[in-house]
Amino acid sequence: MAGAISVAAEWQMLHNRYYRKPEIYKMKWKHIDLSRNKVACALYGGPIAVIRDDSKIVQLYAESALRKLRIFNSAGVHLAETVWRNPGGRLVALSWTDDLTLICIVQDGTIYRYNIHAELIEPSVSLGKECFEHSVVECVFWGNGVVCMNEGFQFFCVPDFKNLGRDGAGVVKLADPLLEAPPLCMAVIEPKYTMSGNVEVLIAVEDHVLLVDEDGVQQVGAGVGPLQKIVVSRDGKYLASFTHDGRLLVITTDFSSIIFEFSCESALPPEHLAWCGLDSVLLFWDDSLLMVGPYGDPVRYYYDEPIVLISECDGVRVLSNSNMEFVQRVPDSTVSIFTIGSTTPAALLYDALDHFDKRSAKADENLRMIRSSLPEAIEACIDAAGYEFDVARQETLLRAASYGQAFCSDVPRDRFQEMCKTLRVLNAVRNPDIGISLSIQQYKELTAPILIGRLINAHQHFLALRLSEYLGLSQELVLMHWACTRITCSESMPDSALLSSLLEKLKLCKGIDYARVAEHADKSNRRKLAASLVEHEPCSSKQVPLMLSIEQEDTALSKAIESGDTDLVYFVLFHLLQKAVEPTLEFFGMIQSKPLARDLYITYSRCYNHEDLKNFFLSAGQLQEVAFLLWKESWELSKNPMASNATSPHGKRIKAIEKARDLFAETKEYIFESKAADEHAKLLRLLFECLIAVDGGFGSNDVS
User: Fold this and answer.
1) Mean pLDDT, the chain, as a whole number?
2) Within 10 A of 489 (CB to CB), how many other CB atoms are there?
3) Which three-class secondary structure state does DSSP give residue 17?
4) 641 with 702: CB under 8 angstroms?
5) What are 191-239's pLDDT values in tens digits?
6) β-strands 288-292, 280-284: how paired?
7) Peptide bond into 270 cis (omega under 30)
């Protein structure tokens, strides 16, 4: 029980609920003072972006006067940095999107985007002309969007950064609240929590609040203010606000009722105001962090350094210069086990394990006491293990559950195995070198595929691959991203060595899209490597277009023919024809040695392009085929009265037939056709002469 006492001693009680603040990491960064910097922390244990705040006058120590944008993981491990040289005025705000793109908004409304490696994502985009003319002064972010206010007190919304264009396309101007002075504070209700499906902005003005959206402005909450600071809960239902006279109000977002009110000791607005789950609110002043709930006395924590509060779905991460902590409500299963003096079945099972390790008979006594409640106790131990960050405590709780399972056959084993698997994943990503401090609830909300995607983007490919394999997820995306990254980072490596290295890993996964990797190699100006990679692509429909793009036309045509897909063969033929403008001897020579391609080209040209087909037959020495085409053309001319009513005895039909006769005469095998064509031409001449003699010209009837 001594262990249980030490665990519970770390808790604080807020009314009838326990809260704890375990330290997750000792920050590994050096010489970082949060008070001198603008800081952006991504949700779900994501990276931290830090840049010197140019709105503050700070003393420079042994550092460059150039501002640097630096990115760290949650443990303070340095990931990347870049010198900030962007024009557009002062940096107003920065924040991470859901897909870990860092959004930086400057005064003239320009939005600069960076990836997790501090690489600028081109092109930069703009909030539009009005934000350029009247500088941006405040921004409120959520998920993948932002609401900005300019100096003219006009509000602009970007619902989704993915749909944002260069000249303000994708920016929505909200209704004008007609403000004459800056608002006291503002907050945003995300579109997914509003009835209209559009973002709503809450603006504190004097003693009331204005609700602004695209369609209009509505006054709400008359008499609740003036409000100095407001923040919306994660479910969009509640609003925590700090009034001018030092009261904390929790109100429904429709302002229909006040949930609770608390009078603080200070009337100065807190530096930070954040929701801790949905149970309590945190307020931070210079050295004091106050946790307030709907009932009971508040809980106070003291700090001798600046902090940043990051609201998560199940608590608040507290970032300071020296460490990262996590404030959360203690789960019920943990309370049932570790509360001092607890006699719940779960506590007795945990205690039984302790006695068992000491070879005490008390272990058997505890088990007999909870025999009927053993399944409940086992479930509580498994559940409590999932909420722990301390690996040793996880192991002890799982051992207690396993110990109980030995005496209970009614408990399904799947739950225990699933928790072990989940904790292995969480412990792997919580390693300081990875620095993703996920809780089990955050992990469930984020989902495993997105977590693996974050690892991939952070270039943690080995861990991502192992987790994909362990969780039974596809490894293809991990290997492809690794291959593309390897190509980008191996500029000095010879193509042959790089190819061997890539194939060694890519062959581990069936169904790899070699074409996409080859396409990346081509974009990286490694065409020879691309040609070698695309040879391993099993899908012809992906392989052939890429071969054409890297100018491997002959190979592309051969692969298309091997696939047996006539549409793909036609695709190659049309590409070659379009590239050459008109068929060349090289093109004719290429298809002449490939029967399927030759026959398809002939079939197409017979219907749409006789002139090119004649050139093809001439290049192949097939004069009789040209003659047959000419003879056929003469019959087509007979169906056209305008062509056949020519007054000249040497009209188009006769000329075509005579050309056919001459070509037939070139080969001994076609003497009959040559004589037949000659007779045909003579008969047409006689016919035309008779028509001229009878009525002085050609009739209007068709001559066949």
Assistant:
1) 85
2) 10
3) strand
4) yes
5) 999 988 899 999 999 889 999 999 899 999 888 879 999 999 999 999 9
6) antiparallel
7) no
- Which pairs count as long-range contacts for 504-509, CB under 8 Å and 24+ apart, including other chains? 505/479, 506/479, 506/536, 508/475, 508/479, 509/475, 509/476, 509/479
Q: Are 456 and 478 in contact (CB under 8 A)?
A: yes
pLDDT over 70 at 519, yes or no = yes
- Nearest-angstrom CA–CA distance, 9 and 3: 10
Q: Residue type for 478, please?
A: V
Task: Choose among 188, 17, 50, 206: nearest CA to 118.
Answer: 50
User: 């807020």: which residue's tokens?
Assistant: 14
Which residues is 25 bridged to in the sheet? 324
Looking only at the bridges linking them, the beta strands covering 37-41 and 208-212 are unpaired
What contacts 552, CB < 8 A, 6 or more positions away?
531, 534
Neighbours of 362 (CB within 10 A): 13
Q: Facing residues of 357 across strands?
A: none
- Residue 576: what are its φ and ψ, rounded to 5°? -65, -40
d(CA 454, CA 448): 10
21, 276 contact by CB (below 8 A): no
In 3D space, the residue among 593, 647, 640 whose CA is nearest the CA of residue 620 turns out to be 593
Which residues lie below 8 Å from residue 516, measured CB to CB, with a gap of 6+?
Answer: 480, 484, 542
* Closest residue by Cα to residue 227 from 198, 200, 196, 258: 258
pLDDT per residue as tens digits for the range 463-510: 999 999 999 999 999 999 999 999 998 888 888 899 999 988 888 888
Contact of 108 with 132, CB cutoff 8 Å: yes
Tokens 């606000």 belong to residue: 241
Pairing of strands 185-189, 280-284: unpaired
Q: Is there a contact between 145 and 161 (Cβ–Cβ < 8 Å)?
A: yes
The radius of gyration computed from the CA coordinates of the chain, to the nearest angstrom, equals: 39
CB atoms within 10 A of CB 344: 18
pLDDT tens digits along 247-305: 999 999 988 899 999 999 888 999 999 999 888 999 999 889 999 998 888 999 999 99
Taking the CA of residue 190 as centre, how many other CA atoms within 13 Å lie in the half-sphere pointing to its CB?
15
Q: Which two structure tokens, joined as six digits, stand for 27? A: 């920050």
Cβ-based neighbour number of residue 139 at 10 Å:
21
Structure tokens at 198: 């559009």
657-663-669 Cα angle (round to 5) = 115
The angle at the Cα of 40, spanning 36 to 43, to the nearest 5 degrees, equals: 145
- Among 508, 510, 568, which Cα is nearest to 543's? 568
Q: How many CB atoms lie within 10 A of CB 270?
A: 22
- Widest CA span in the chain: 134
- State whether residue 645 is helix, strand or coil: coil
Give the separation between CA 650 and CA 636, rounded to whole angstroms: 17
Sign (positive/negative) of CA torsion 128, 132, 138, 139?
A: positive
